[in-house]
Amino acid sequence: RKAVGDPAAKIAIDEVGAKNLWVVNPREIKFYPNLLLAQAKILHAAGEDITFGSQ
């Protein structure tokens, strides 16, 4: 929220009805966590409806 300046911004998990499922490589999470933030900013700016899967 702070990174994009939008209090409504979120990274959803298991959101029913989301348009896209965001799948990442586990190595990105461990070694490049800032990459996820950069991708989230781009997807937010594009207005994409995304969710992570918890399984």
Would you give an account of this structure?
The protein has one domain (1-55). The chain contains two helices and two strands, in the order E-H-H-E. The chain has helices at 26-31, 33-45; strands spanning 20-22, 50-52. With 55 residues, the protein is of the alpha+beta class. The termini are far apart. The radius of gyration is 11 Å and the shape is globular.
Q: What's the quick description here?
A:
This protein has 55 residues and is of the alpha+beta class. It has one domain.
List the helices and strands and how they pair.
Layout: E1 20-22, H1 26-31, H2 33-45, E2 50-52
Parallel strand pairs: 1-2
Shape: globular
Q: Which radius of gyration do the C-alpha atoms yield?
A: 11 Å
Q: In total, how many beta strands?
A: 2
**Helix-and-strand structural type:** alpha+beta
Task: Give the helix level as a range of percent.
Answer: 25-40%
Tell me the fraction of residues in β-strands, as a range.
5-15%
Strand order of the largest sheet: 1-2
Tell me about the largest β-sheet: 2 strands, parallel
Mean pLDDT: 87
Provide the number of structural domains. Answer: 1
User: Low-confidence stretches at least 5 residues in length (pLDDT < 50)?
Assistant: none
Number of helices: 2
User: What is the CA–CA distance across the termini?
Assistant: 25 Å
The helix/strand order is EHHE
